[in-house]
């Protein structure tokens, strides 16, 4: 088992048996693992757990689907990649993680070697940082955060647990992105703006003012398209993260 001591003072495991939780993103994450392993990692993907019964017994990207998520207990030596993530599942991610109730150190943190993570940044367990992403100085990412290709998280920003930052997003410094929120591709977020927990920002949006929790905001200039009730557990998670 290999360990990388170079990110935010914490020890990030970079090898060992690995199982994906959720099937949809597995093909692209396999490519991330190939690049990590070529840079010195030693991850050994074993299979996929997914609650879709139609996938049981099939293979995806060469990996077998081993059954539903509840079978995590059958793999005590493996770490898990939490690969469930889209605008429609952003709130469900929290309930799934609570249901699995695994300790943080059972989740693999994947940082593509082509990403730039400043030495003073902090990356939470289970987060996935893709190629070309920049995590600037003083940034704190929570657990299970996904940052896709070529996105920039500006200095001293905070991104709560389970947030999804899609490709080519740019945030200025001091931004707060709430737990289990979703930021669409090519969006820009101004300095010191807060995106509430469970909120969703549509692609190519310009965000100049705070976005309330559970709000779906889209466009430039921005328009509020809908609001959704955010579970109390997500609100509490964000409040704890920002204390």
TrEMBL record:
Q: Which Gene3D superfamilies match?
A: 3.40.50.20, Hexapeptide repeat proteins
Residue ranges spanning the membrane: these are none
Q: Which residues bind substrate?
A: 85
Q: Which CDD domains match?
A: LbH_AT_putative
| Family statement drawn from the similarity comment of this UniProt entry | Belongs to the transferase hexapeptide repeat family.
Q: What is this protein called?
A: PglD N-terminal domain-containing protein
